[in-house]
Write a structure and sequence with these properties.
single chain, about 575 residues, alpha+beta, Pdz3 Domain, 12-stranded antiparallel β-sheet, 15 helices
Length: about 575
């Protein structure tokens, strides 16, 4: 049983209290650093700071020093700075005129607004510099993955690799071990991260596992689940439905690779060792992530050393090379004309109305130009040619396409395929104390630029569709991550806080009402018009912006809660 805090009502699990506490502390630090930037800039500019508060009212402590009231609020979440004249004052005495924010020149007001964002970036820079001195994971994004793999920063292993086997759990009893690679479940290749997630909660089935060059089979039966739940109940253990199997995997993502579609058993390729389903990892030690990579690496040569992935193992083969092109279906959209006509994954499109295509782009163009017309598709399915009549709707038929490249008339064919891959290790970056700050500065700039693009894309997507991306986390999601990083140790926590600080800085600089960037926008408008917008109207706009931000936070928080429950 998890320890709980008993306060005379429904007990609160200690891990939840820990997560909430960690989030409050971390977020408060970030907000206070931001507000301290405004505070210092205002003080140095001679603007009166009426109050600098830690937390929010009601106040539990206060002390006035000079013109500023310093306070601690009962709500320990962030902080605030209240500037004299921030909301505009018409009747300001000449004595206090220069102390009023609204009566200072545009340059001074802009400096005060930017100061908060600057402090967030400064904090991130200091933290990342410290992390790089002692060794820290780089701030990687999706675009960094391939270069990081090639440079050796990211270590990969194809397939979902077991990182944790829960002690006393079902998986341990069946014989699963750390380092095992799940090859297939119920004779279906594990090819998507959701497959792994699903099998944790619904573990019944036959598991094909690669271990040390061997292929092992484990079967989870309905009786196994019943017995496990019964034993767990007798021992006073709570069975977590989201992971009955008791396995934890390394971080998983779909990594682009090239897969062999089919192969002629009489061809020299088959005799050299290639098989259908093989994933081509590299050619002559050069990584292959797409069919185009393959074509470039094999252009002008008669043979090459192929490194292939098969059944959890890598092997090197000397293979002859040559190529011709076709188009293959890699996915069918539900409810669209292609599905209604009976097209399926891995269909090869031989021709449309007798016209052949050697790349998806030309085929898509042809379909678009013939929108609303019945088109006769010649399809090669498992060696048999069949015909389907499909009418494009709005210039589309509802299929995903890839180039299918056949290296000889009687050889093998291959296509772009996402291979489920485990990130088994990320090498820490470590620099001397005299170069770490420079590398940290580049990291802050790069991450801020990427974060800004992500924020803009998120807003655009939310406005156009009303949907919130799976990759977006709100307060609940960030709180969960904060608790996890606190447990991981100092350096991972430092890295996480730096990322949050950069995100907070970027968010605040966006030209949206209620944010620092929105206030800077009004200063810019004042510069263009030659006169300020009336304070009353500016306040109305900021109030509206604040309301919209709160609605967005509520929407994201709701999504976080749904994810946590589901």
């Amino acid at each position: 049983m998890k320890p709980v805090l008993n306060l005379g009502f429904n007990p609160i699990p200690m891990n939840i209290l820990f997560t909430i506490g960690a989030f409050v502390v971390v977020f408060s630090i970030l907000v206070l650093v931001h507000e301290f930037g405004h505070f210092i800039a205002a003080k140095r500019s001679g603007i009166k700071v009426e109050e600098f508060g830690i937390g929010f009212p009601p106040r539990i402590w206060k002390k006035k020093k000079g013109e500023t009231l310093y306070s601690v609020g009962a709500i320990p979440f962030g902080g605030f700075v209240r500037l004299f004249g921030m909301e505009g004052h018409k009747n300001v005495s000449k004595q206090n005129l220069l102390k009023s924010f609204s009566h200072r020149n545009m340059r001074t007001r802009a400096k005060v607004m930017v100061a908060g964002v600057f402090m967030n970036f400064l904090l991130a820079w200091v933290l990342i510099s410290f992390g790089f001195m002692f060794g820290m994971e780089p701030l990687l994004t999706a675009d960094d993955v391939l270069p990081a793999v090639n440079s050796g920063v990211i270590k990969l292993k194809e397939g979902p690799v077991v990182k944790v086997v829960a002690g006393g759990g079902m998986a341990e009893g069946l014989g699963f071990q750390m380092g095992d690679t799940i090859v297939s479940v119920n004779n279906k290749e594990v090819s998507d991260p959701s497959d792994v997630t699903d099998l944790l909660a619904n573990p019944i089935g036959l598991y094909e596992v690669a271990r040390g060059g061997e292929i092992l089979n484990y079967e989870v039966t309905e009786q196994n689940v019943i017995d496990y739940k019964e034993v767990a109940s007798l021992n006073g253990k709570k069975v977590l439905d989201e992971n009955i199997l008791g396995l934890g995997f390394y971080n998983l993502f779909s990594f682009p690779r090239v897969r062999i579609y089919e192969i002629d058993k009489e061809s020299p390729f088959y005799k050299a060792g290639l098989r259908a389903g093989d994933v081509i990892v590299s050619v002559n030690d050069q990584q292959v992530y797409s069919v185009n990579d393959y074509l470039k690496l094999t252009d002008g040569i008669n043979q090459a050393v192929f490194t292939v992935y098969r059944d959890g193992n890598r092997q090197d083969l000397i293979i002859p090379v040559d190529a011709r092109k076709q188009v293959i279906v890699t996915g069918v959209v539900k409810g669209k004309s292609a599905e209604k006509a009976g097209l399926i994954d891995r269909d090869i499109i031989v021709s449309i109305n007798g016209k052949k295509f050697n790349n998806p782009e030309d085929l898509v163009k042809f379909i678009t130009e013939n929108d609303g017309q019945a088109l006769l598709f010649a399809i090669n399915r498992d060696g048999t040619e069949i015909y389907k009549e499909i009418t494009p709707e709005a210039g589309k038929v509802g299929v995903y396409l890839s180039g299918l490249f056949t290296p000889s008339a009687n050889g093998f064919s291959l296509y772009d395929s996402d291979q489920l891959t485990s990130v088994t290790a990320i090498t820490n970056e470590k620099y001397p104390f005299y170069t770490a700050p420079w590398h940290a500065l580049k990291e802050v700039y790069r991450t801020a630029k990427i974060t800004g693009v992500m924020f803009v894309d998120f807003v655009r997507s939310f406005v156009s569709s009303g949907e919130i991306s799976e990759g977006v986390a709100g307060p609940v999601g960030i709180a969960q991550m904060t608790g996890a990083y606190v447990k991981e140790g100092l350096i991972p926590l430092i890295r996480f806080i730096a990322l949050l600080s950069i995100s907070l800085g970027v968010l605040n600089i966006l030209p949206f009402p209620a944010l620092d960037g929105g206030k800077l926008l009004f200063i810019l408008i004042e510069f263009i018009l030659g006169r300020p917008i009336p304070a009353k109207w500016e306040n109305y706009v900021h109030m509206l912006g604040y309301a919209l931000i709160m609605l967005l936070i509520i929407a994201v928080t709701y999504q976080d809660i749904v994810r946590a429950i589901v």
